[in-house]
Amino acid sequence: MLTVRCKLSPTDSQAEEMEDTLKAFADACNWINQNTPAKLRNKVRIQGIVYQDVRAKFGLSANLAIRAINRVASNHKTAMKDHSSVKNFEPTSIDYDTRIFAFREKDEEISVTLLRSRQRIKLVLGDYQRTRLKDSKPTSATLCKKGSEYYINIQVKSEAPEQIHVDTVLGVDLGITDIAVTSEGQKFGGKTIKLIKNHYASMRAVLQQKAVKGTRSSRRRCRELQQRLSGKEARYQRQINHEISKAIVTRAQEIPAKIALEDLTGIREGVNQKAGKNHRRRVNGWAFYQLKEFLSYKALAAGVPLVLVDPAYTSQTCHQCGEHGIRNGKSFKCPVCGWSGDADFNGAKNIAFLGRYVDRPGGSEGLPSIKAVLSGLLKAPVFRPE
């Protein structure tokens, strides 16, 4: 399932009606949230309580009213899981399904139900959008507003190609100095990313100090700047993760090979308990989960198998002889066979080695660690130089 973001080109009257629909939808969500118990998560029960009132008070169509109820129910569920409260709904988006939304490929436009009518709105498409939407039958979409512009996020479902069957493995080690290093020695990240991340961190610190002190207007301005900075940093991370994941999957197709990636589930909890403040900031400041998700769906779309392996001891074990080595920052040296080099490259080689024994995607629970393999639990052949 892919989401294709398309810009809309509405007329003035269409833009006005979209604005009214967004406001009515948000007002309905807020009213539903205020008039239903916070612990009530069942959308059918919520519908029985508020459906008629929502239709009468806000003028929404039957399906849009159901969409609003479903959104509130989903937010109630998320809030209970996070032990928080549901935030105020802003007039920025509306959920659509096939009954109130249609994509017209020939005319490059969409048909959507708004507050007072059904409208056909022109799309502004590029080559990427046309390719992704060609011969597709979208099942759902989200109408969004950003600034003064309107977009439609169209969900497109497609069949994944059959995965290739190969024994070759491309290992990927994730880190901080270099975001990713492959078992072929290809590196992603480095000094530029570190400098930009440190710049964002220092800017946040300065704005945080100013947001606490000063006049009311200066504090408000600092909070606004903090939000803008957060969005800018998130977009930068997202772009870099897209570039890294695309390059890795493309290389795996060229070899061809399956991808073995270390499973970092729970890494933040461990780092937050043991590491210092600066290291915690650097680990928590990069979206490794997002990178894993990008790699997963790009690999699936390309027919490249991807497996997750237990990262335990992969950075401490020599990939040449299997003995415990010495890691110092980015450097690794084996006191037994004498191999020395980049520590992340060494880890990537061990991850690739483990990837040969993993034939299913998923978490690392129950999967072998490098220590288990090299201790003979799997009778794995270990290369030892003469």
TrEMBL record:
Q: What is this protein called?
A: Transposase, IS605 OrfB family, putative
Q: Where along the sequence do coiled-coil regions lie?
A: none
What domain of life is recorded for the organism? Archaea
Look up keyword DNA damage and say if it applies: no
Q: Which InterPro entries match?
A: Cas12f1-like_TNB (IPR010095), RNA-guided_DNA_endo/Transpos (IPR051399)
Question: What's one Pfam family the UniProt record gives for this protein?
Answer: Cas12f1-like_TNB
* Cleavable signal peptide: none
What keywords are assigned to this protein?
DNA-binding
Domain Cas12f1-like TNB, by residue range, is: 288-351
- Name the source organism: Methanothrix soehngenii (strain ATCC 5969 / DSM 3671 / JCM 10134 / NBRC 103675 / OCM 69 / GP-6)
Quote one Gene Ontology molecular function term: DNA binding
